[in-house]
Structure formats: C-alpha cells, structure tokens
Amino acid sequence: MKRHYLLTAALLLAATGIHAAGPTSERPSDAAAFARLKTLVGEWGANTKMGKAHLSYELIAGGTALVERETHENMPAMLTVYHLDGDRLMLTHYCMAGNQPRMRMEAFNPETGEVQFQFQDATNLSPNGGHMHDAKLRLTDSDHLAAEWEFYENGQRKMTESAQYIRVR
Fold it and tell me: Do 127 and 114 form a contact (C-beta atoms < 8 A)?
C-alpha cells in the first residue's frame, strides 16, 4: 500500500511539473534573446587581426528575421540570419567556406546581454569539413557588441574568431 502511494505521488508530481528536488530552472526565453538581438539593427565596425570588419543588421519579413551582413577587407561577404523556429531561436550562417551551419540558442543572460549558440546541423558540409560550429554574441550596451565564432575542422576546434564592434550608425 505504501509503495502504491509513493508511486502515485511521484506520478502526480511529474505530471504537474513539480519535482521533489525543488524548483526547476527554466530555459531562458528565446523570444527575449531575439528581441535583444533586434536592437542590433544598424551599422557596426571593428578592427580585427584580418583588418577592418563591418557588420550591418536589418530586420526583414515583418520583423521575423534579423539579417547580419558581414564584410572584411579582402574577403567575401557572409550572411547570418537569426529567427525563431517555434519557440527556439536559430541562426543560419552562409559562410565563405561554402556551407551553411545552423545553430540553436543554448543560453541567454539578459543581464550581460550574452547569447550563446551551438551547432545543430549544416547543409553543404562535407565529412570533416571546416565550418562555424558555435557562436557567442554579447551586447554589452546599445553601442558595443562582442562576437566570438568557433571554427571546427576534422571534428575539433581549429580556431576562434573574436571581434569587438562599435556602432557606427
């Protein structure tokens, strides 16, 4: 009888989302992170190891997608599109490596403005091919953006590209 009672109680707790261990930690709001990213609309510049870099952000499709256009001196332009897929914040990066990695948001800290993305899959990616794998953006205030992108090849991190951008418009 006691065993039946404990099993019934455990099932009820599980069904209501209450855990015996205490309150659960909720997943940060992807919608809140996307709203924060939308504040990037405008023009940004940075001096990097590869020379001057420029980012422009534009909202398209009725505000449902944020397009990032990235240019560097002597390099082909690249695009990254941020959007919600249901309740998940996603990005697709159209890379000069010729592939299109997709990443999903894994963490958002509204206090620091840091949004972390993790590789989900990619199109046009050859086995062991080089590709952007993870990304981290930190919107420290309305005029400063730190970006960090990890490049993987042969299944492991090969390098990290980092830049500190300042809003120019």
Answer: no
